Amino acid sequence: MINTDRVLSPRFITLAGLTLVVAAVAIATVLAWVVGRDTARLEAIKTGSTIAVGLGGLAALWLAARKQRTAELALQQTERDASERRITELYGKAAEQLGSDKPPVRLAGIYALERLAQANPEHQQTVVNLFCAYLRMPFDDSEAEFAVQRTLQALLRDHLRPDPPETYWPDMEVRLSRATLTEFSFTRCRVRVGRFHGTRFRAETMFRDAEFTTWADFTGSQFDGRVSFTRVVFPPGTSFEDAEFHGQVLLDGTQTRLAQ
Q1: What does each C-alpha distance from 61 to 56, 57, 67, 70, 255 come to in angstroms?
Q2: Is the predicted pLDDT of residue 81 greater than 70, yes or no?
Q3: Burial category of 239 from C-beta neighbours within 10 Å (exposed 0-12, middle 13-18, buried 19 and up)
Q4: Parallel, antiparallel, or unpaired for β 222-223 and 190-195?
Q5: pTM: predicted TM-score of the whole model, two decimal places
Q6: Sign of the CA dihedral 236, 239, 241, 245?
């Protein structure tokens, strides 16, 4: 919002004008009194008038500059409001597409949300939350649905990798508790929090070179195929309580980061 406290009011402008007039009269009077002669008094009055005109010009320039600044702030606010409206409209349309019963429409919504988050970093966690919510929903085993799931998982993986930095969404919290994930890959991802409580991982699952900086929870999760935790960095307090592994588990180089 524009700071209206800093916008000049008509009352302030009137008082400033009267102050300049009084100052000019005072200056002319003082000069006339000090000089003493009629001719000199006339010159003093001229000098005082010149000073008053100069002060008035400076005041006019200052008022013009303040007016220009106020107009610029108003324009910036208008542009921000328009941008927020566009983002809200795009978000609403994409979220509606994500709820469609047609896989191609859902894919369009996924890509629209991904572009929105990439262009507006302040919305990245919201979009990640929405993607995770979709992955937590029950789904059928059709090939079309698997295509949507794989696309969504790949987008998450790509944006949670620090390299390349221009596409990285930092400091994210991933909420995939009780989701069913097929061929899930979290390779080289770096997130703040990973919630996988009660998550079922089907087929091969990859967490290789991943890092959780604050917290990770795999309590009650189930791995139905080979899983790689090679060189994963887990924070203190990471839980695998009651987790089930029904395939090969790779742990080479896995470490728990020491508390700071």
Answers
A1: 9, 6, 10, 14, 66
A2: no
A3: middle
A4: unpaired
A5: 0.67
A6: negative
